[in-house]
C-alpha cells in the first residue's frame, strides 16, 4: 500500500505567495525575487510531505496564479490579443501569465484580462482558456518540466500533475463559431506528447492526469474522446505510470469508461462518493492490474478524518484488490484546505474544544500516512493510540453540548409556507415600491462594497491587535462611510450604499457574529490569483444573538435623504463559502442561516431601511455537479433565500446579487427566488447573460452589470450606454437598473470614482432617450 497527494496549497502558510505577487505587481520586488518566493514555497511543501512520509509527492501543483492558466501557457494557447506582448515587447513568461490573468494597461497597450469562472463547485476560480477555430498549439511554458527537475534537486522524485487534455478543452470556451473545442484534441495531444517525452527523458515515471470533467454528465462523444485520448497516450508511453484523477463527485455514468481506460491508477473521491468501491465491484470491469487510489481524507472540509470509517473502506477495497494495488490519498487536491491548524493559537477565535475536531492540509497529510500505517501495521501500539485518540475526538464532537441548540431546531421545524412567501406577488409589490421609493428609470446603484484600501485594512488590523480602541476604529469607519455617502450624493447616484468598510469579508463578517460559527486567524484558502478567503467554520446550530449590520446601515441612512441599501449576504452563500458541519444535511444548516438573515432583514426594515440587498453570488456554484441532483438542491436553496427575504412589507424592496455564474439552466429557479431586483455580472459577456432573462420573460427588475470590476480600466460612458442599449433591446426599460458587475472592494478609489461618474452619466443619457 502506498500514499500519495494530489496537490498541496500553494499560497504558503503565511500567504507568502499573495504578498510576493502583489509586491511584484506594485513594482516593489523584482521578477527574480518573486521566483525565489515560489521556490521557497515549493521546497517547504515538498519537505513537509516528505517528512510526513508521503510516498508520491506532487509537483506542478504550484502556480503563480492558476493551474488552468498554466496549462494554456504550457500548450501555447495564447489569445491573439497578447501576441504583441510576446513579439513586440518580448515580455518574460511571468508577465505574459499575469497579463492574461489581469489584463495589461500600460505602455500604450489596453489588453483585457481573460475570463475567470468557478472551478466546479468550489470558491476557487480559474482562468477560462480561449480557443479559436484555427487554434494552434505548441509547447511554450516548460514549467512542469522545470518543477520536476527542481524537485529532483531537492531530493524528491516527484509526480508531475497535469490538467488532462480533455478537461482542459472542456473547461475552455470557443471564441468563434463554427467549431467545437473538443475537435481540437488532435492538435492538442502532440503538445502533451512532447511534454511527456521530455518528462520521460528526465526519468519521471508517475504522471497524474486530472480529468475533473469526469465528475460531470458527459455525452457519448465526450466519453469517446476520453477513451481515445488515454489509449493514444498509453500507446505512445507504455512504460509511464498514468494516474487518472477526478474528484468532487462519483464517476457515475462515466464509470465503465474510466474502468476500461489503459491507466495504471484510478483515483476515487470516496468522501463525495463512498459507494464508489461497491459500484466498481458491481461493474465487473475492474481489471487485475489497476491500482485504486482511495481518496479518504476530505480535501474540501476541515474536519478530522474518521479513521475507523476510512479503515472500513480500505478493508472493503482490500477484499478484491490486494494491498500492493491500493493507495491512500486525500479526496482531491488540498488547494481547497487551509495550510496548518498548528498556527491557530488564539483560543478566543478557535476554542480548543472545536480545534480538536479539525485538520488542515498539513494535518491531512499526516492523516493519509497514519491511515496507511494503520491498515498495514495493525500491531503498532503508538498507531493504535492514534486510532483511539481519533475515535475519542470524534465522539467528543458527536456528544458536545455546544453543537445543539434546541430553540433553533424548534424554529426550523415550525417554518410554514407563509414564511417563505412575501405578502403579495411582485406585480402588487412593484406598484407599492414605486410609490414609496420614487426612483427614476435606469436607477443607478452599486453592489455594496467600496475600495478596501490598505488604510481601511490597517485600521482593522490595528484594532484587532489592540493598537487602536474600539471607539477609535468605529470613528474611522464612520468617517469613511460618511465620505462614501457624500461622494455618492455628489455624483447623483440614486440608491446609495454604506460601503462595507467594516467588513473583512462578506461571509467571514457574518460568521464572526453568528452563534454556531468559529473562525480562524490564519485559515486562508486561495480564491483566485492572489486573493484569499478565510472561510468561517460552522460547527453547530446557527443563530443570531445580535443585529449584525443595522448599526452601519442605519448610520449611513441617517446621513442622507437618498435611499441607502442595506447589505446582507444570503444563506446559501454563507453556507457555500464556509466550512460546513458534516453531521447534518447542508439544507438544514442553510435553513438555520436563513432564519438568522431573516431576523436581520426585519431589523433593518424596522430601523428605516427600505431597500435591502441579500447577496447570493454562490447559489449557482452550490449546484450539484450532476444534473440529476439539481432539483433537490434548488428546492431548498431557493426556499432558504425566500425565508430570508419574506419577513418584510411589500413596500420594502428586496434586491439580490449574483456574479460569475451562468443562468440559462436555472433561470426558472432564479425567478422563483422572487427578489424585487436582481443585479448580475454581465459586462464581460457583453450582456449575453441577459438573454436567459429575456427568453424567460423575467418579470422582476434587473441590473445587468455595465462594467467589469476586475480591472482598473475606466470604461467610457459610450461603452456603458452601448451595453444598456443592448439590454434595453431585450428587457423592457422600466425593468432596468444601472450598476457595475460586482462590488468594488478590490479596486482603488481613483478608478472607482472615474468609472462611477461615467456610469451615472450613461444612465442619465439613457433616460433622455426614453
Ligand atoms: C466576491 N467574492 C468573494 C468570494 N468569497 C468570499 N468569501 N468573499 C468574496 O468576496 N468568492 C467569489 C468572489 C471573488 N473572490 C474574492 C475572494 C477574496 C477577495 C479578497 O479581497 N480577499 C482579501 C482578504 C479579505 C480579508 O479577509 N481581509 C481581512 C484581513 C486582511 C489581511 O490580510 N490583513 C493583514 C493585516 C492588514 C494589512 O496589512 O493589510 C494580515 O492579516 O496580514 C481584513 O480586511 O480585515 C485578500 O486580500 O486576499 C476578493 C474576492
Ligand atoms: N456586496 C458584495 C457582493 C460581492 S459578490 C460586494 O459588494 O462586495
Ligand atoms: Zn458579486
Automatic annotation (TrEMBL):
Binding-site residues for L-methionine, renumbered to this chain: 447-449, 500, 615
Binding positions (Zn(2+) 1): 657, 659, 681, 742
Binding site for L-homocysteine: 447-449, 500, 615
Molecular function per GO: 5-methyltetrahydropteroyltriglutamate-homocysteine S-methyltransferase activity; zinc ion binding
Organism in which the protein naturally occurs: Taibaiella soli
Single Gene Ontology BP annotation: methylation
Enzyme class (EC, first level): transferase
Cofactor remark: Binds 1 zinc ion per subunit.
Protein's UniProt name: 5-methyltetrahydropteroyltriglutamate--homocysteine methyltransferase
Gene for this chain: metE
Positions of the catalytic residues: 710 (proton donor)
Domain Cobalamin-independent methionine synthase MetE C-terminal/archaeal: 442-764
